[in-house]
Amino acid sequence: xxxxxxxxxxxxxxxALRHYHQLGILPEPPRSANGYRDYNVHHLVRxxxxxxxxxxxxxxHKLPELLxxxxxxxxxxxxxxxxxxxxxxxRLTAQRxxxxxxxxxxxxxxxxxxxxxxxxxxxAGGLPPRFARLDREQLILLAHLVGDEHLTSIARLYxxxxxxxxxxxxxxxxxxxxxxxxxxxxxxxxEVADDLISVCASVAEELTGTENPVDLGDAAAxxxxxxxxxxxxxQKRVLALVESRLRTS
Length: 249
Description:
Radius of gyration: 30 Å
Order of helices and strands: HHHHHHHHHHHH
Structural class: mainly alpha
Distance between the termini: 82 Å
Largest sheet: none
């Protein structure tokens, strides 16, 4: 029989047949004189076994030992499969819980759930779109670089920023920062720097006032590199002022 006939009888696609050949779990018969591969009933039996084992959940890379040693202890094999399936169910259950949490927060799926409500709040608070994007991308960087142990501390910081009084001050300072350009004078730059420093001072304790203070380490350089591509000269000067004054305070 030809590959299409074999596949149809077994209820698989011809593409799946080719995949099984590539993995070496289904022998590939030689081509006949007419150029077609000629499969026989023994190929069909092995293919049906592959379909049955894969349907139970056995990974394809483990099939050779099951197919070629059918007399091995089946209970041991099934116990191992059961444990793997249970672990997979646990992972899927956790994923579904995370999806439900993101849906409840109406959050973008690429954001860590700890930060999702705050990112939406800042965007709705009037943060300019370009800076909302900057904030969102830096949240993604932070979540990856600081590690799970510091996620709670960073989330507390954003929670503090999201408090009504401070949110208004933070979004206003961000809006003034966003408006800076080459025509902004030194006095304006100092005023914006003062506003940002005031906001930073309000949340500094969330980073340093814990038993396990957040040390950005190499993450700080990467965050700076990321923002550097999106800021103009005046905005970079303000950030330099803020950093200098915070360092000496």
